């Protein structure tokens, strides 16, 4: 045998096997040589080998010149084939023997995923969220109190709506906790009901269905705990702990404090709201947007809604008693534990500001407003980024050196046509902004004046109304000395005034809507809602039929040291449409005439008779002429028609 004899080639079948070290016959030919060609054993070996060659994963026959080459597909095997190396991509096919191609491909894909850069997170528990959980909604190091909660509907606890426990900072408003937990249990609620729960359908109670001390539901967690744990109250409230929380309570009390609370769902209130919203498709945006459902089952009557809700509740309770629970609803996790892996804490940038306070004063008799300087200077740190924003305004947090925290509001656009989304950008002049922010302060002050007149009118007639209503006390705050990044102003000087903000006390984020800009229908039948809608009717009369108040919304808060509602950001519609952004003029006034239905308070005050909802003949004729030539959408703000006057002088 010559030195250049190819040991990888079989002498009998003339097939080439790369990497083969021995000479002579291949394994196939060696086995076949031991049997006669006409024997059954010979036929079996031929069939088995052919089957092996065709079915073995990765095994194939390659025609290389005049040679037939058999390889397994491995790097070593294919590298021995002349001209075969370029076909192989080492980074995709590892050098390994007899590994199925599917396994190799899976390995390649895994390595590719590991090489990927940053990509979108699949969890909502980002660093800021985890830190909020760790700090209980407060500042790092702040005292915390553990709150364990369950859900009660009527007389029964409903575990399938969720339950949980978490440490909350003492400075957090109990109202905000209720809003957060309501959003959580509403997800489970909607699995059995057509519409979601809202915060006004839920109240805070102590374990065992015990009502808290009166006028404490709008306090902070620390204040709420202090009142119910002192003066002999602890035995009634704090020490009432269900067995499910006993062990947790014992550990929590050794550290700070523990409260076993219940979220009481007012089923009748929810059914009433669902009925009214369902029968009023044009005003159901709040509930439908919360539920995320495009189509809802119609409820014919209030009794039908309550009955249907009760039946669904029984089904829910029955499934709970039988041990079949909704997936993931047994324990409502709020994650208050380990946060070491959540990353570094977010750094909030704040800028020192100096603000000059300007008050809006309303004449107690005529209601004519004016602005005056107070001589009061406010020093503090203003957040560079907004806390939240609405359709037209941004809201920023101001931490005052002396006094409570405030929120500062400013417009980031002055009409619906503007699409300004750039943070801290001011796409208009300081004076243009001053005109509109003054109009906001005027509306608030004037609304407060109307409300006092309304309460007096009701008291004079011995008519019961909700006296726990008040409008937010606001003032204007002009930046002096140097501008803040949040203002969007570049320079302050003799010829360049600083931005003027609308300043209000910081309140809860839970908001209850009574009316909207062009929708004034009542959605509830309780005393508070009836009072607000009667007040809106009263304003039309007390303004000598010149003004309609709209977009009435509020936040539960203490009013005269009692649980009440603070209303804010009202809008007005006037005959000339010149009271500020959102004034739809005659169109807005007529939207109130169209939607308002006198309720119990209206009727007892005889507003249906003494204050007719109609325009005078001249304005009726003008509106008819306007309608003939107008093709505007009544639901779209006509900001090009809004007229404004110059800035009022402080």
Automatic annotation (TrEMBL):
Domain Alpha-type protein kinase: 361-610
Parts forming coiled coils: none
Protein's UniProt keywords contain Methyltransferase: no
Molecular-function GO term, any one: ATP binding
Top-level division of the source organism's lineage: Eukaryota
Bias kind Basic and acidic residues: ranges: 618-630
Protein name in the entry: Kinase-like domain-containing protein
Source organism per UniProt: Mycena alexandri
């Amino acid at each position: 045998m010559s030195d250049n004899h190819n040991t990888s080639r079989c002498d009998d079948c003339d097939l080439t096997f790369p990497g083969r070290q021995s000479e002579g016959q291949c394994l196939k030919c060696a086995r076949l040589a031991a049997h006669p060609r006409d024997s059954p054993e010979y036929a079996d070996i031929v069939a088995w080998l052919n089957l092996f060659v065709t079915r073995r994963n990765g095994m194939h026959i390659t025609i290389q010149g005049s040679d037939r080459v058999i390889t397994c597909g491995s790097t070593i095997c294919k590298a021995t084939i002349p001209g075969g190396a370029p076909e192989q991509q080492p980074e995709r096919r590892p050098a390994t023997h007899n590994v199925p191609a599917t396994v190799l491909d899976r390995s390649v894909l895994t390595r590719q995923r590991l090489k990927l850069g940053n990509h979108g997170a699949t969890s909502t528990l980002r660093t800021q969220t985890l830190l909020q959980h760790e700090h209980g909604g407060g500042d790092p190091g702040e005292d915390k109190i553990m709150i364990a909660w369950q859900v009660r509907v009527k007389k029964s606890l409903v575990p399938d709506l969720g339950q949980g426990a978490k440490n909350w900072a003492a400075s957090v408003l109990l109202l905000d906790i209720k809003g957060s937990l309501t959003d959580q249990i509403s997800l489970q609620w909607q699995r059995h009901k057509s519409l979601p729960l809202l915060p006004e359908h839920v109240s805070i109670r102590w374990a065992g269905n015990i009502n808290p001390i009166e006028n404490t539901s709008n306090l902070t967690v620390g204040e709420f705990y202090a009142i119910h744990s002192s003066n002999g109250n602890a035995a009634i409230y704090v020490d009432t702990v269900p067995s499910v929380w006993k062990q947790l309570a014992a550990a929590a009390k050794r550290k700070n404090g523990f409260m076993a609370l219940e979220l009481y769902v007012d089923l009748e209130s929810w059914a009433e709201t669902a009925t009214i919203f369902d029968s009023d498709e044009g005003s159901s945006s709040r509930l439908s947007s919360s539920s995320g459902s495009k189509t809802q089952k119609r409820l014919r009557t209030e009794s039908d809604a309550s009955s249907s809700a009760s039946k669904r509740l029984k089904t829910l309770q029955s499934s709970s008693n039988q041990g079949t629970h909704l997936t993931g609803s047994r324990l409502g996790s709020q994650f208050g534990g380990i946060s070491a892996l959540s990353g570094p804490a977010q750094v909030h940038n704040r800028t020192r500001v100096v603000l000059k306070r300007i008050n809006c004063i309303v004449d107690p008799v005529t209601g004519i407003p004016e602005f005056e300087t107070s001589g009061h200077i406010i020093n503090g740190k203003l957040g560079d980024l907004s806390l939240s924003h609405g359709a037209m305004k941004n809201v920023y947090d101001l931490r005052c050196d002396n006094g409570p925290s405030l929120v500062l509001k400013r417009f980031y656009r002055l009409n619906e046509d503007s699409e300004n989304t750039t943070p801290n950008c001011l796409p208009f002049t300081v004076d243009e902004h001053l005109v509109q922010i003054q109009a906001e302060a005027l509306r608030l002050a004037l609304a407060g004046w109307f409300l006092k007149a309304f309460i007096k009118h009701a008291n004079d007639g011995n008519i019961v109304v909700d006296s726990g209503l008040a409008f937010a006390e606001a003032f204007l705050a002009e930046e002096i000395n140097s501008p803040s990044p949040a203002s969007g102003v570049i320079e302050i000087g003799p010829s360049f005034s600083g931005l003027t903000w609308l300043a209000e006390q910081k309140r809860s984020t839970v908001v209850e809507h009574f009316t909207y800009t062009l929708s004034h229908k009542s959605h509830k039948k309780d005393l508070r809602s009836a009072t607000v809608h009667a007040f809106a009717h009263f304003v039309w009369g007390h303004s000598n039929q010149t003004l309609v108040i709209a977009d009435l919304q509020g936040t539960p808060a203490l009013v005269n040291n009692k649980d009440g509602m603070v209303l804010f950001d009202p809008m007005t519609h006037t005959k000339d449409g010149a009271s500020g952004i959102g004034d739809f003029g005659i169109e807005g006034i007529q939207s109130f005439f169209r939607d308002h239905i006198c309720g119990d308070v209206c009727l007892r005050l005889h507003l249906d008779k003494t204050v007719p909802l109609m325009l005078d003949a001249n304005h009726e004729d003008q509106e008819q002429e306007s309608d003939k030539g107008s093709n505007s959408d009544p639901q779209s703000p006509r900001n090009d028609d809004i007229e404004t006057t110059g800035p009022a002088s402080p």
